[in-house]
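An instance follows:
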Amino acid sequence: MKPYLLEKIEFFSLDSPLLKFSKNIASQFGEDGIIEKIFEILGTENQYCIEFGGWDGKYLSNCFNLIENKGWSGCFIEANKERFLDLVANHGFNPKVNCINKFVEISGENSLEAILSSINAPRGIDLLSIDIDGLDYFIWEELTTYTPRLVVIEFNPTIPNDIVFVQPKNPSINQGSSLLALIHLGKKKGYELVCCTTCNAFFVKKEDFLKFKLKSNSILSLYRPISDGRIFHGFDSYIYVHGMDKLLWSKILINNDSFQVVSKEDRIYTETKQLTK
């Protein structure tokens, strides 16, 4: 018999209608089909899309299907030189596509604002896809002149729904941000959440939100984390971890023993009842 009993109450009530349209042409978690449905609801204004990091313009791309099969125009931005060569091979022949080899920065001449201005991108582009494994939050935060009608942005799926987390504003750090942090940012910028896949959130302008006829766009209605971990400790300082049995990217298995910071001999309950103030 286990020395302890853990039961986590199930409090999610998923009701996300757009997920039933999930389909992959090049995307990773069904984004291609969801994007198609969103623009079926919204309609298009310029059929222009922006994607970065763009990789080769096809692998796990949220824009490839639109450009390759729907005739859209757009821009792929990729910092890695080798991937950029593949990007040019896939799209360089297309006069409707800009391929740019730059690392998108938060401000300055390599900011997204400056890059879009240099290629005369439309101010109200139909789709912006942000996936750079780190500074995604800050790139969207600093985008002011351009107002995409749909923003697809990556979040860290290991962070519980009730946590607002934004990584440090440092390009050398790859931690990402929580979905809840992006929801708060979206509201500040005039956007509402309409769908989530495993690690991508879909935001539309507030004035378009009612077109989707969602019963609710609360985080608990639209997203169930793939790793919903909790850490707590007993009166004797024994640390418990629940809801995550491995680190998703390194695949390292973890358990309670992985988190003990107090030696076994020092994990002793006393009746001092003193809490840190």
Observations:
- Residues 230-266 form one domain.
- The first strand starts at residue 48 and ends at 52.
